[in-house]
Amino acid sequence: MPGGVAYRERMVRIEVVGEGTAVAQPDYAALTFTVVVRDGSARAAASSAETGAASLIDMLDRAGVANDDRGAQSATVHRRTRWHGDREVFEGWEAVINVACTVRDPNRAYDLVEDVTAAADVALSGPHWVVEPSNAAHDRARARAFEEGVRKAESYANAAGLSLGDLKEISEGTGAGGSPSRRLAASSPEAMTAALEPASQTVGATVTLLFDAE
Asked: What pTM value is reported for the model?
């Protein structure tokens, strides 16, 4: 039973869950730009949105964002209506294209946002600061989780008047992941300067340990 002491016939085993965290600077920033165009014709709205998305991708190319790190993620065209009294009134069509990109140097996120948001009809979601699975912070979090698990197992053994024996099983749980991403609505670049600075992220690890005890 996790977090406690289990007695099975004459064999005693102690199973515990250890958790650990570590802080790291993000490895990259993930941004999503949204091109929105409204028109009286569905075809015209879609065509203008495609043109805007193509211009946006050109900007990303000029900014040095690799081809594998950017692309159109989704596109929709839908009717726009409003209610006037008890009647739904058709107002035209809206085309939306989302273009996601990865900025490998988090410190360049502001420069990219400044250039892209200067274009009309482009909104921003992000940055979302990401810590790669290979980042050493994950190793530190796992080590701390293991140490915490051993400490808890020893504490349970002492409380039960037992000696902690061999470690029999190790299984990894789901870590805490990164701290909540910052989400920003598009505004003037000057207002976003501070918010676009890379934010430290907390990564976590959880491990389940099973010990013999006597």
From this structure: 0.66
